[in-house]
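Standup notes
- HV: blocked on the assembly model, inputs below
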Amino acid sequence: MLKKPGDASTLKLSLWRRGMNQAANAFAIGAAILVIVPLMAIFIYLLIKGVGALNWAFLTQTPKPVGEAGGGMANAIVGSGVILGIASVIGIPMGIGCGIYLAEYGRGRFGDLVRFTADVLNGVPSIVIGIAVYSLIVLRQKHFSAFSGGIALSVMMIPTVARATEEMLLMVPNNVREAALGLGIPKWRTTLSISLRTASAGVITGCMLAFARVAGETAPLLFTAFGNQYWNMNLNQPTAALPLQIFTYAISPFDEWHKQAWAGALILIVMIVAAVAAVRITTSRGALKGAS
Amino acid sequence: MPDSLNPMNSRDPAEQTQNPMAAMPALAHAASERKPGVASSVLQRIRHTQPRSSRLPDAAFRILILLTAVSVFAIVVFVVVELVDKSRLSLHQFGLGFFFGHNWDPVNGDFGAMPFIYGTLVSSLLALLLAVPLSVGVAVYVTEMCPIRLRAIISFLVELLAAIPSVIYGLWAIFVLAPLLRDYVEPFLAKTLGWTGLFTGPMYGLGMLAAGIILAIMIVPIIASITREVLTAVPQNQREAVLALGATRWEMIRMGVLRNARIGIVGGVILGLGRALGETMAVTMVIGNRPEVAKSLFAPGYTMASVIANEFSEATGDLYLSALVEIGLALFIVTLIVNALARLLVWSITGGTAGRARA
């Protein structure tokens, strides 16, 4: 049998070297297992506890007062949808615009500056963004609102979307652009209808990853959207959000609320995993379409 | 900068970056005058023959795109300005002593951030201590050891770990991890390592140890993915050279791979530290939220991020609010430095391609 180089059994080795090799193998495998175990544990607990607490009322009713059984998180699920909708409407175009700038125009010093600030923004703790949006909007309006929550999340989406867009646009071959320009199509039209369109699968992936990332964000919503026990469809009023509701219920002392927190967490994770899986499927089909 | 050398190119520098010739713009241009097939020349000519009617929309589009880019820059500036402005009261009142004060007494208006700084540092360092060997182990396993079929699966699972929201980690930690720690791990640690003084006192389950462990789980995917990226960037012939000298696989990894990649790995570790420092929800849910500096890891603590999360919306009084914003400002500055350092290190080893798709 042909043996691979580096396979310890092909070499005459001292016990020490052989032992170290085995130990390193064991350590790496052990590390891989140890990292996967919490993931599995979290998913298994979510499934067991979440499915047990999930029912029709949970999806259709608003929270009941403490002590009363039943109730649900319908308002929080819809509230999360509204807040994420606002965040996407603002964050995705801004992010894509910034990405276009970086890829198509931003070669100079200002481009580097924007690239660096995007990275900085990406690293800013979400709670700090919460404070900043609080003092910009909430403090001036003197009340919490879904709108301010959406702004906070959109700020967190921009850098992710921007960098993904930039990367994908840079992958578009230059002769695709040349062909378009050669037909007399203006630059803006070339960028939007040719370059961006060619890169669309990758850009969409970036947007969905950004969406998945902010969907579970709680910290910036604590003092922007604030949460609400009732239905609220007014964008200018405090609004419930799924992660906020999970947080409130998890740290409460009531068993009934703990169960609801698990159910809420299950719903949240299903939404996020669906988004990530969708991303996986799109990326496996190739980041660029029609250009290779 | 190429643009300054060649005025002809200055109108649309970005279009030429893909062209290898763009590195030497003057030469490229001269050459392309003779060979019309070269991209930059074609783009230049198109530029000049573009109909007048498309100039205005082009300029408008350019300005619009520039505005979005400027706004990203403006957001960061705005965050800094807002934080400094809102924390002015506290900055003025306590000065630098704010960061060394041990009292956190909202009732009497006495604020010191030491317990929170301590909590943030200890929980983050504990997380690094646990996460670094594990992440490097996983990355080494995925890049150097595991069968190709497993590679994608493990990478995907580790990626999935990064997709779980912080609040769900917290929920799991409260109801699963903390009881586990309280009933099994902490008694064991107290018995075997109690003499160090780090593992003494009442065992609640919730406390610094729980926070460190949950943070470790959360930063593993970050460190592991950067490390994997850096290890992949190590040239294959480094491995082959070490193997040819008769090394075992571990010796090959140690001498040929890890030694070459160490700067990048440190970068990944610092990036993980940045995340751990700013992490809020999961920590808030399990650390116990008591502003004390305690040596024992079983004791409850408090972090900078979690004090903001817990007290910000209930803070009464301008000074209280201002003190909390100042903690936020400190957190911002620390994560900024940490992240900048990490990016620099990662870039230095992968030539700026880490985390970016390769064209």
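- HV (later): unblocked. Residues 21 and 325 of chain B are 51 Å apart (CA to CA). The longest strand of chain B covers residues 104-105.
- Next: hand off to the docking folks.
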